[in-house]
Write a structure and sequence with these properties.
This protein is an alpha/beta fold. It has helices spanning 24-38, 77-92, 113-125, 136-145, 186-198, 214-229, 245-253, and strands at 4-7, 66-72, 102-108, 130-134, 151-154, 166-168, 171-173, 178-183, 204-210, 233-239, 259-261. It has a 6-stranded parallel sheet, with helices on both faces. Strands 10-9-11 form a 3-stranded parallel sheet, with helices on both faces.
């Protein structure tokens, strides 16, 4: 049964930036969801207590540790925090490298798509117990490559946004092997409210977004709606590679916005050399 929990996003204390931070609440959600993936079911019966048998001098074989392939697309503070929360949640349930109950294989694609594919292919070939996909791109890539290995998603939107769900009657179902937590767009409401409090005379907001990324385009739709509701003008520029970033930012700054919101989705853009 596919299970998801909503992961709220909150802005930084600075009013001029939107930034995702994994809170303690997120860690608790990761804890609950992770527990659902790897917990072993123990059968309980009400048999009468049997006399204790003499302990055998032969050591019982240790349980084989679960193997978790953790894939991250790029170095980023938000993603690093999510990874720490995931590992902490596992440890609280008794699964860690230190305890010998789990082997966590961390791999970072360093913003390179071929490397990301190789990492996930290796995890699948090694038949890991679970693939932990930190961000949307690793999650989508893993889903295309395996239907058998559980995939734990984090730092990404609801499956409906990325067209991963299938409608069955009145129900909407995500892939059977996809579990984890997803983000909402509540941080946009919070950001607009914060801007209103900090800059009551603000009239124009500038933002860049990745037009090729579902997370970014979906956030832009919500931002446009909120700006309209709050009588704020939105100066937006779309980009599809890092080479376009400087020009887009300069174009926005030439409009002299009162607040500039850099989009974190830029971290998932192809690097232009």
């Amino acid at each position: 049964m596919t299970t998801f929990a909503k992961q709220p996003r909150q802005p930084k204390n600075t009013p001029t930036m939107m930034h995702n931070h994994c809170s303690h609440a997120f860690r608790r959600m990761v804890l609950l969801m992770t527990f659902g993936i790897i917990i072993y079911a123990v059968g309980c019966t009400s048999k009468p207590e049997e006399p204790k048998k003499p302990e055998s001098s032969i050591e019982k074989p240790a349980k084989k540790p679960v193997v978790i392939g953790f894939v991250q697309p790029v170095d980023d503070e938000t993603l690093d925090e999510a990874r720490r929360g995931f590992i902490d949640a596992l440890a609280k349930r008794g699964y860690s490298d230190t305890a010998g109950t789990a082997q966590i294989i961390y791999q970072n694609a360093q913003n390179d798509i071929p490397t990301l594919n190789q990492i996930i292919d290796k995890f699948i070939a090694d038949k890991v117990t679970c693939i932990a996909a930190n961000a949307t791109l690793p999650m989508m890539t893993a889903l295309k490559k395996t239907k058998d290995i559980p995939i734990f998603m984090m730092v990404g939107p609801a499956p409906t946004i990325n067209d991963l769900t299938i409608k069955q009657g009145e129900n909407v179902k995500a892939p059977a092997n996809l579990v984890g937590v997803y983000e909402t767009l509540a941080y946009i409401d919070s950001s607009i409210a914060l801007i209103r409090r900090a800059f009551p005379n603000a009239k124009t907001i500038g933002v860049i977004f990745n037009s090729a990324e579902p997370n970014s385009t979906n956030a832009m739709k919500e931002l446009r709606k909120k700006c309209k509701q709050n009588n704020l003008k939105l100066e937006a520029r779309s980009i599809t590679s890092t080479a376009e970033t400087q020009q887009a930012v300069q174009a926005i700054l030439s409009k002299k916005p009162d607040v500039f919101l850099p989009c974190l989705i830029i971290l998932s853009l192809p690097v232009s050399k």
